[in-house]
Each structure stands twice: as C-alpha cells, then as structure tokens.
Amino acid sequence: MDVVEAKEVCKDGEVRKKTTEPRSTEATSAALLGPRVVVITELEDDSDSSSKAESSEEEDDSRWTEVGKGSDVPTEYWHIQKLVKYMKAGNQTATIVALCCLKDQTLTTEISQIAIRDIGGLEVLVNLLETEDLKCKLGALSVLSQISVNTEIRRTITDLGGVPLLVEILSHPARDLQILAAETIANIAKVDLLDVSRTALMTPMDDLQPEEKQQVLVAKAGAEALWSLSQSTKNKEAMKRAGSMRLLANLIKSIHLDVVIPIMGTIQQCASESKYQLGIRTEGMIADLVRHLSTVTTRTDLKKHCASAIFRCAEDEQTRDLVRQSGGLDPLVKLAKDPAVQLDKPLLAAVTGAIWKCAISPANVRRFDDLNIMPILVGLLKDENEEVLTNVVGGLAECCKHPENRTVLRLNDGIPPLVMLLNGTNAPLLQNVALVLGECAHEMESMEIIDKLDGVRLIWSLLKNPDTLVQANAAWALCPCIQNAKDSGEMVRSFVGGLELIVSLLRSEDIKVLACVCAAIAKIALDRENLAVVTDHGVVPMLAQLVITVPLPVPSSLLTAPLPHNTCLLQPADSPFTSQYLSPPAC
User: Is 13 a domain residue?
Assistant: First the structure.
C-alpha cells in the first residue's frame, strides 16, 4: 500500500493539493484515468533510521538536491515535472505539446530548473537536439536557451555531449534554430570548457589519457562555437567581459591544430576591435601568431588566420614593433614570394595585408628592405584579385615614403602597372594607388614616367570619384605632380574643366578633402594664369569662408592656400575682395 500525493484541478483553474487514502497499485492506476485527479509521484514508506542515514549522506550535496527532495515545494515544481513526463512519453505530438507548454513556464526560476533536472528532463532535451523534426528541435532549444543560465545545468548539458550538437545546429538553414543554438552556446561557454590543462594542450593526442582526450575534444567544440559566435559584435563584447582573452591565450599555444585553427579564427574575427587588440598584445599572443605563421604545415587556413589577425592588429604601433621583434616579418615575406601561396588568393590577401600594415613603421620598412620586399610587391601588381592588389599597393605606398624605395620601384618597372590601375573602379584600391603615385612623383625621373603615361590626368579624374578618401588622396597626389612636372602651368590648363572641378571640391563637408584640395590649389596658384582661372571660379570667397568656418585645429593645408598672398597680386585696392576680406575690423 502506498500514500499518494495528488492535485485536484477545479473548474475555476485553481490547483489544490490533497492526500488520498492509502490504496493499492490498482487503485492508483484507476485514479490516473479520472478527469480531475493526476498522480504526480510516489513516496516510499522508509523507516526513520534509513531516512536519517540518507540525510546524513547528502549533507554535502548541493542545495539543488535538497530542494528537489524537500516535501514543501511549490506547485510549479510538480506541474513542470508532469510536463516533462508527457515529453518523455515518446509520442511526437505529445512531446511537441509538452515542449510548448514547458516553454511558456517561467523557466528562469531556480525551482523550475530543479524540477527539470530532477526528473531527467535535461537528458530528454539534449536527445531532442538530434531529432529530424524541426518543431521538436526548436522547442528543445527554446527551453535550453532559458535554463542554461544556471551553472549546474550548463555543466550537465556539457557532460551530456550537448555542445557538439549545438555547434552542428549553427549550420542549419533555419534562422530560428541558429539564434537559439547561439544563445545556448553563449550561456554554456561561461563554463570553463576551454580551460584545458597545459599538459593536455602540449601532448600529442595518442599519448593523452582518455579523460585528457575528452578535455581536448570539448575544447575543440567550444572553440568552434566561439568562432561562430565571434561574427557578432554583441557576442564579441560578451566574450570579452567573460574573460575570453586568457582562455584564447592559453589555447593558442596548443599543438592540436583542430583546437588552434578555430581559436585563431576567433582571434582574427575579434582583432578588429580595439579592446581585443590590446588584449592580444598584453597576453603575449603576437609571438604565438608568428610561431604558427612560421610552422611548416599543409593547413593553409591556419596561416591565413594568423596573417589576417596580424593585418587587423597592426594598426597599433606597439603591435607592429612586437611583430618585428618576434621575427614575424621574415615569414610574411617568405609566404608572399611562395608560388603556391600566390595561387591561394585568400591567403595571399591576408599576407599582403599584414605586410602593408606592418610597413607603416619605418623600422619594419628597413627590415623589409633587407628582405628585398620591393621586387616581390611589384611582381604581385600583375595579380587580378582586387583585395590582393589593394594590399600590395598599400604596402608600396608605405615603402615609397622612403626615397630609396621610389628608385627601386621605378627600376623594377612598377610605375606603368600602377598607372594602369587608375582606370579601375575599386575605391580602396584607388585610394592606395593615388598615395603611391603621389610618393613617386617626388622623384623627378618617376614623375617623367607618370607624365608620359598620362598619369596626372588620370589622377585628376579621381577628383570626380564619389568616395571622399579617393578625392582627398588624389588631391594630395596632385601636389608633387604639379610641383615637379615640366611646364606644370600649361599641363594643368590642358585638363578641360580640371580647375573648375578642383575648386568645386571646396564645397565638400569632409575636412580631409578640404585640406588636400587647398594644398593642391596652393600649388596651382603659383602659376599666374592658373591663378586667374581659379579666381574666376570663385576660389577666393570659398577659401575665405573656410578660414572662418572650419573648426580648430585648422588643417595646415588651408594655411598654405593662396589667401591672401598670391590672390592679392590680382586684386586692386578698391576691389570687393579687399574691402570684404582684408579690411581691418571696425573699432
């Protein structure tokens, strides 16, 4: 005979507990068929001595277990357990209905989470992730995404092998599934899945103990999950707050490529964020990036992620210095001239991008010169991939800030392909082409080649490009072209509509465009005939207005524009210009 605890559901929806009279198992089964009474659980009639023994053994258990076994529990506990029982019935329709009802419960409360755990609901939910039925999978994820905020549940899901299943769902075409899986992984990732011992990371897989192998496999799955999550800016911030940098710094040292590659993918995804750039530098990861970049392996994706991470981090001066000090410039040059790498366009783009950003530092350029980088970059100008070309030309622009490299570029016939690139439409590429030709124009021999190839006209035509940085760089490049060209005054006047075009850019709202255009006009106005033309186009009041309205600090180029010195040469004493712009203020 058993004592049965039950609930009675009234017509008004109120739920009341009641204890029935002791009855047999047959009576209990009969009661289950009744419309109002549902049996929830059975309590064994154990002796007092056994109860005391059990309680003493469970004193060190978690509070969760104590709550689950307590007699005074809320009705929600039993209601949720009843739903889980229906979910475990095996009938697909009953499972879906139970999941829908369970999802509507307040699952963020501790008692609800305990109820699911105590009756084995976590095992069922994890198993449902493997089903082919979309509704079952969606319902299970809806529940898991809410209850996985609990530390114990996160650990249990991990132990049940739920992480690989969640990672697999991330590639499912259904967006709802992807979102819920990502949310669940984000919660589970707070468990130190990635906190693997250094011994396990540095020991070959065949030499690991079974438990250590499991740690590495879990770390691999967790790393892949982080990689997927890191594509979202919001997730990057959450990962940073959760202390991901320390874990990434530990895992990147591993010899297991299956762990390192997703970690490296995560790092290169996050490296565009300034906070991550600081963390990568301070956690000493630059040396690890260089080490993996230099490793002899057939896994080109590893090298691509390393080079891409350097490319994104090297905006920072200290990082560029660390790359050089770690010996990272040598493998970059070695990869750039490797014929096999030149066929792998994503890898080549990452490598040339890293070279470009590292070349911003003069000390790195000197090392690149020792490695004879200029002929390699000039050879890559024949590549048809625009991303590769953008990075190659950017690297040339930084290297050509050093006069000796302008000569090397010219002697290696690098100017003609650069001028040809001015006919393209890719804005980032045009920005860099204008820069490198502007640097080359400081050398008289190179300027002659640019002029002969009609390069000045092509640079001038970039002023019509809608991209403001293209406009600014083109105007900046025109300054040395005008200064060093033979008979520059006549050359400028030969461009039909050219002077009107450059004056019209003084209406731009971009400060950099204004500064570069003013610098170019300062060079143009040195020729009296050109000065007269730009004056007719209204350059004087436009420049004067800029002096009044441009916020401090005023770009130095505005101060070099022909106001008032050159312009005053053409103005009579009683002209509107003199009275409006040069008259002293009234006292």
Answer: yes
**Cα gap 161→81, rounded to integer Å:** 23
State the DSSP code for 555: P
pTM for the complete prediction?
A: 0.69
The DSSP string of 196-249 is: --HHHHHS-GGGS-HHHHHHHHHHHHHHHHHHHHTTSHHHHHHHHHTTHHHHHH
Domain-located, residue 23 = yes
Q: Which residue in the block uniquely carries the two structure tokens 């009474």?
A: 37
Domain-embedded: residue 344: no
Residue 552's contacts (CB-CB under 8 Å, 6 or more residues apart) are: none
> How far apart are the C-alpha atoms of 6 and 20, rounded to whole Å?
7
Q: CA neighbours within 13 Å on the CB side: how many for 368?
A: 33
The one-character DSSP state at 182 is H
Domain count, the chain: 1
Tokens coding 21: 């009279």
- Please determine, for residue 82, whether its predicted confidence score (pLDDT) is greater than 50: yes
Strands 15-19, 37-43: pairing is: unpaired
Task: Tell me the residue range of the domain where 4 lies.
Answer: 1-47
* pLDDT tens per residue across span 106-154: 888 888 888 888 888 888 888 888 888 888 888 888 888 888 888 788 8
32 inside domain: yes
